[in-house]
Design goal:
By secondary structure, this protein is an alpha+beta fold. It folds into 2 domains: 271 residues, L-amino peptidase D-ALA esterase/amidase, CATH 3.60.70; 123 residues, ArgJ beta chain, C-terminal domain (Ubiquitin-like (UB roll), Roll). Helices cover 33% and strands 28% of the residues. The chain contains 11 helices and 16 strands. Strands 1, 2, 3, 4, 5, 6, 7, 8 and 10 form a 9-stranded mixed beta sheet that branches. Strands 9-16-11-15-12-13-14 form a 7-stranded mixed beta sheet, with helices on both faces. Helix 5 packs across helix 6. The longest helix is centred in the middle third of the chain and has 21 residues. The chain starts with a strand and ends with a helix.
């Protein structure tokens, strides 16, 4: 079991902060997390063939199982599509941070988010590094500053801390994420950082992160765009002094349960904060032949622009859902499909065994006007299930992205 803290806090052995250094006009835009000791680290990255310079750098370090001392993040500039100069600048950032922390540049992970195709202002970045490192501490206020510094169009901060007990030691896991647009299955324009004081073996952490991604960040969608900068990093410094957790240890499943909860929470919070979103939608597919089919169907429905628009209009347009299922490529029997809508105002079935049934448009509208909506898709083919999360597509989304660079 684990306990969710009302007020997020840092695990043992970490210092943190976020400041305004000049990438944005006013708001905080540079964040750093530093561990007292070197950490085991794991990473999962964008599937986009166009990868930002920091993604290339971080993937190299985690693939090589390099230890991590610090993660530095800037917002306001993605350092993507900046060619060899972007990679050179990214390495220079890691080197500058390492010089200030007395570690190797390979011990520094770098993340960027913001406008694509604009070179970094390295004079601003280096000045920011010299300012932020002396300011780091372990205060909860600095954790909030960190979260504020990594966001772009986000309306809310996404932070969670949970505690559990392993080997008679208190283990803390904290997660911080950003993201609200360019959110698509196979992660999103999102950055997520999970840091813990647990002592967990490096390969076990990497395997756990990779498997967790599949049922969390890879099951969300806002607008169908996959970013150049998507990154999820998990680091563990062992400061809790528990016996090392590996995949064969008795405590692995206990840690896994807490770890998965943190990432599920952050994934849902990203969707709830989708650009211009007014509704949170959960799609539940039940009775699929395989887990793969269940996931494909749920993701196809949640990513459909027509489905998103129907939810924005509170329109019980089940035909768009069935259409999205049909082109998904998943194997299912159309004649067995049932579809229902549910919210705090009730539940209504609109299709049963592949046949549309008479329903009250008035009641359906009342249900779909709510902010939290569930779509139940029952297939009756077998026993596999999947969940996907998304939001509606509104006029506000177009407004936000129509003048993003201005």
């Amino acid at each position: 079991m684990y306990k969710i803290l009302k007020n997020p806090t840092l695990p043992k052995g970490y210092k943190i902060n976020g400041i305004a250094c000049g990438f944005k006009k006013v708001k905080k835009d540079l964040a750093i997390l530093v561990s007292d000791t070197l950490c085991n680290s794991a990473g999962t990255y964008t599937t986009n063939k166009v990868k930002a310079a920091p993604v290339i750098w971080d993937k190299k370090q985690t693939d090589n199982k390099e230890k991590t001392k610090a993660i530095i993040i800037n917002s306001g500039n993605a350092n993507a599509c900046t060619s060899f100069q972007g990679e050179k600048d990214n390495e220079e950032i890691a080197k500058e941070v390492s010089n200030n922390l007395n570690c190797n540049k390979e011990n520094v992970l770098v993340c960027s988010t913001g406008v694509i195709g604009v070179p970094l202002k390295m004079d601003v970045y280096k000045k920011g590094i010299k300012t932020i490192i002396p300011s780091i501490n372990s205060s909860d206020n600095n954790l909030l500053n960190f979260s504020k510094a990594i966001i772009t169009t986000d309306k809310s901060l996404k932070i969670i801390t949970i505690k559990t007990e392993i080997d008679n030691k208190e283990i803390t896991i904290t997660g911080v994420a950003k993201g609200s647009g360019m959110i698509h299955p196979n992660m999103a324009t999102m950055l997520s950082f999970i840091f813990t004081d647990a002592n967990i073996e490096n390969q076990a952490l990497q395997n756990l992160l990779g498997n967790t991604i599949e049922d969390t960040y890879n099951m969300i969608s806002v607008d169908g765009d996959t970013s150049t900068n998507d990154t999820v990093l998990a680091i563990a410094n062992g400061a809790a002094n528990n016996k090392e957790i590996n995949q064969d240890s008795e405590d692995f499943n206990k840690f896994k349960e807490a770890f998965v909860f943190v990432n599920t929470y952050l994934a849902k919070e990203i969707v709830k904060d989708g650009e211009g979103a007014s509704k949170f939608i959960e799609v539940i597919t039940n009775g699929a032949k395989t887990k793969k089919d269940a996931k494909i169907l749920a993701k196809s429905v949640i990513n459909s622009s027509l489905v998103k628009c129907a939810f924005f209009g509170s329109d019980a347009n089940w035909g768009r859902i069935l259409c999205a299922m049909g082109y998904s490529g998943a194997d299912f029997n159309v004649d067995k499909v049932s579809i229902s809508f549910e919210s705090s105002k009730g539940k209504i079935t609109v299709v049963e065994n592949g046949v549309p049934i008479k329903f009250s448009e008035e009641i359906a509208k009342k249900i779909l006007l709510e902010k939290m909506i569930k779509v139940h898709i029952n297939l009756e083919d077998a026993n596999e299930q999947a969940l996907a999360w998304g939001c509606d597509l509104s006029y506000k989304y177009i407004e936000i992205n129509g003048d993003y660079r201005s």
